[in-house]
Fold Flavin reductase family protein.
Amino acid sequence: MAHGAAVPATDLDGARFRQVMGRFATGVVAITAVDPGTGRPTGLAANSFTSVSLDPPLVGFCVAHTSTTWPGLRGAARLCVNILGGHQLEVCEQLAAKGGDKFDGIEWTGTPDGAPLIDGALAWLECSVEQEHVAGDHVIVVARVHALDEHHDGTPLLFYRGAYGRIA
């Protein structure tokens, strides 16, 4: 298919959609919490994060229905959205992996209400789940921000065309 050739909506497939959407660079965040069932920190990586509202302060992110980590996060009183820096690719990959101890070797402290704040994150937002909306193969999570701050200087971890990178 030639560059610029339009694809009718009826002919869209997941691979083509992913390829085109991959042309939009996104930042990468780690959504973390202390799992109320185990009392242990857990988390997942997401590149679908956005500001939703200033009044009240709301953010949003998307989680795949297949996530085995989200059930442990959703029940926590507080989540921490950690905005990852370009130097945190290994943290991202560890949290994105299926199974295992997500926090093995990851240094963290607690937010004011105890959610895991990953050392070296550029900024953090402590949130609670406000709403969930089923959307195709994901759930859109809207979360209320209770506390936030800048944490570490640096450039962001980016996701573009299926790969991680940073600002040069």
